[in-house]
Amino acid sequence: MQLKYASLKESSAKLKFRHQAFINGKYVNARSGETFDCINPATGKVLTKVTSCDHEDVNLAVKAARKAFESGVWSQRSPNERKNVLLKFADLIEQHQYELALLETLDMGKPIRDSYESDVPGAAKCVRWHAEAIDKIYGQIAPTAPNVVAMITREPLGVIGAVTPWNYPLYLACAKIAPALATGNSIVIKPAEQSPLTTIYVAQLAQEAGVPDGVLNVLPGFGETAGQALGLHPDVDAVSFTGSTEVGKLFLRYSAESNMKRIFLECGGKSPNIVLADYSNLDKAAQSSIAGVFSNQGQICCAPTRLLVQENIREEFVDKLIKHSKDFQPKDPLDPKTIMGAVVSETQMDRILTYVKSGESSGANLVLGGAQARKNSGGYFMEATIFDNVKNNMKIAREEIFGPVLSVLPFKTMEEAIKIANDTHYGLAASVWTSDINKAHKIAKALRAGVVSVNTVDTGDITVTFGGYKQSGIGREGSLLGLENYTEVKTTWIELS
Question: What is the model's pTM?
């Protein structure tokens, strides 16, 4: 389908928004009757009022999820049966690709091209992959004495709480829904209050696909109310959270204060991107580095925002960065030609601008951008921004900005680059550019990060794991290993007569 600007504008004006919570198979208002405004970041205008859930709604949703789990209506269905339902769910996501892409762009501010061509198909692929994987996982038989049979099997955990961020609302919701449901659990998911609309929408698609009532529940609301209640709930067996390191630590505390529920975290990042002078195609490295930082308006947890460039090529490389940044100028997200849209909220835009001021005051050299763009639109647009000659002790080099801001840090030797790269409490991702395979392997082994990319940035696939070292998280998502988060291991020991 070819996206046309006029048609997209017309469709967006007619779009109907699902705005209620989805509990036990029904769209319902919060028990309190409270709502919050859902804002279009490109215009600053209200799209709709969304149900604001709190602890009462969490109690209802968890009760419904527990009842569904204990009944076996989903947890006791064969893996093949669950697979077929999830495959139909993936098909329905694809069939509603246009509406979901519009919702994603209106709600979050990302370019419609990204929503339509990447995010929605990616969500469907994620659901389909987990569906296909679940009936191909086997248990084990332990090597015991001849008179013993010891079976090691995996079972669903029970009720999963999931809390998702606002930067990839649909994909990251499906990245938690799919493995949780594939392994037989029930789930209560709280989307970020900044971008809840697609998660609310797909609840009905899951129901249409055959997911029983109570197995999937969606609770829009705020972190300090619905999120906290989910983290503290004594009948939630695990929480999967993607978001900031600060909030991730809160969920660890909630677990300790309640029932020691399992906590799986994918948190912040300040990913290093090392460019060695021996790399043969500096234009490619510059273009990829820019895309890795400015795509999705810089709102990517593993964005390579700390660019470490060998000193003897730094000036040349910075010139290339500026050149390739010209394509990343903020424009209307509904225009199919746009590659950089609006940041998610006014609060986030102001936060980014505060970091820009910090960079300037600390002595970094602002060589591109640094200001709000498209002020007349009423939306929250931020210029692509580059700082040169950044030191690793500066605030802009140490804290996650979550916006289109790139810091260039010089280094002289490979050893110095590794030391600077690892000098952070984050460890989500890293990249290195070199034409020397020996250096590539040495640096990749030395970097303390969950994902290391060589001669590319921010790469991955559902078939490989994603997650971080240090304060970037606990556990992994993706691949068959990601399914382990949602299962309990049981040993059954049988002595034969």
Answer: 0.96
